[in-house]
Amino acid sequence: MPEGSIAQAGIGCHFMASWMERDTTGLIQMGGEGVDWASHSMFTKTPHVFQNLGDGTYFHSGILAIRQAVAAKANITYKILYNDAVAMTGGQPVDGSISVPQIARQVEAEGIALLPIVSDEPEKYRGHKDQFPRDTTFHHRSELDAVQRRLRETPGVTMLIYDQTCAAEKRRRRKKNAYPDPDKRLFINEAVCEGCGDCGVQSNCLSVEPVENELGRKRRIDQSSCNKDFSCVNGFCPSFVTLEGAKLKKTEGHAFDPAELARRVDALPVPHTPLDDAPYDILVTGVGGTGVVTVGALISMAAHLEGKSASALDFMGFAQKGGSVLSFVRFAATDALLNQVRIDT
Ligand code: SF4
């Protein structure tokens, strides 16, 4: 957010901005983004808000929220976050076909005049400007702050489309050779790093990690989560080393011996499952990729095979972003004892 502005959160992984001290708050149902502001704005001295809206939500029902904002003559700027995937639920393609030029044309028809496009690759629209409304402007993401300041000074409903492929999706597509993969990697020389943290500020990237050594806290790049955005070098730090054509070493897996596994499983004690007249609850917790959902599924299936009643409720929306994942697993001797799938406080 530009200094002095606030944003309202919406449904999607961008909701995480509201946990990150980014002047972003609020919670409303999918497709209701900005609807609350039309009335709220009449009871506050705050003249304007930004409203975040993902591309999937836009296509599903968010365009109706924009229409109502125009009808209500609200003073609001919608930020359409075009990341090219339903990133929160596993990176599925957005239902239907929706492109940045299509969104621009649709909202122009809804009466939105000021419509800058901001992207990490604005040059890709060179030669395609005729697909957009006539007054559309194109900006590199380094201009985001200035663009937002201009939008908030413009009365009425304005919109910004931020076009950048989801970072988690980039990594997944690269694994399938379905996305360009620059043949270079960045490393931080810990012997040179002074631990100032500027690379994290410049890049705002979760792959820049703290690492402690005998000289204090330094930084390193987590190569497995790096999306090769390379913005961490924007600070012009001498600690960075760029390797071109380098491949990561693969760690050797442990030799797997099925007989040894069977022997170890047989040696485990049979767990005591105290199922009398009350349910038994297990809350499995972790982050994305650690097997939380698998554990919940295995345990509940095992209970089912033993003829018990079982339920599993998984919260995994943020798994793609390295966020928390929960599996609420409940069993009971009979179905009648399992009233709800959530474990209460
Ligand atoms: S790598 Fe450079 S910018 Fe990052 S913490 Fe170390 S000295 Fe600072």
Keywords summarizing the entry:
alpha/beta, Rossmann fold, 3 domains, 8 helices, 14 strands
Description of the molecule:
With 345 residues, the chain is α/β, with parallel strands linked by helices. The radius of gyration is 25 Å and the shape is globular. It is built from eight helices and 14 strands. The protein has a seven-stranded parallel β-sheet with strand order 2-1-3-4-7-5-6, with helices on both faces. The protein folds into three domains: 7-168, Rossmann fold (3-Layer(aba) Sandwich), CATH 3.40.50; 182-244, Alpha-Beta Plaits (2-Layer Sandwich); 274-337, no CATH class. The mean pLDDT is 90. The protein binds iron/sulfur cluster. Iron/sulfur cluster (SF4) binds next to helix 6.
Short description:
Helix content is about 25%, strand content about 25%.
Write the layout of secondary structure elements.
Elements: E1 7-8, E2 24-25, H1 35-40, E3 49-54, H2 55-71, E4 76-82, H3 100-109, E5 116-119, E6 137-140, H4 144-152, E7 157-163, H5 167-175, E8 184-188, H6 198-203, E9 208-213, E10 216-221, E11 240-244, H7 258-267, E12 280-287, H8 292-305, E13 309-315, E14 324-332
Bound molecules: iron/sulfur cluster.
Iron/sulfur cluster (SF4) binds at residues 188, 193-199, 219, 235, 237, 239.
How is the biggest beta sheet arranged? 7 strands, parallel
Distance between the termini: 35 Å
CATH homolog superfamily of the largest domain: Thiamin diphosphate (ThDP)-binding fold, Pyr/PP domains
What's the Cα radius of gyration?
A: 25 Å
Average of pLDDT: 90
Question: Which percent range describes the beta-strand content?
Answer: 15-25%
Tally of alpha and pi helices: 8
State the order of secondary-structure elements, H for helix, E for strand: EEHEHEHEEHEHEHEEEHEHEE
Oligomer: single chain
CATH architecture of the largest domain: 3-Layer(aba) Sandwich
Task: Give the CA-based shape.
Answer: globular
Instruction: Extract low-pLDDT stretches.
Output: none
Task: Name the bound molecules.
Answer: iron/sulfur cluster
CATH C-level category of the largest domain: Alpha Beta
CATH fold name of the largest domain: Rossmann fold
How are the strands of the largest sheet arranged?
2-1-3-4-7-5-6
| Total tally of structural domains | 3
Considering DSSP H and I runs of 4 or more, what fraction of the residues is helical? 10-25%
Structural class: alpha/beta
Tally of DSSP β-strands: 14
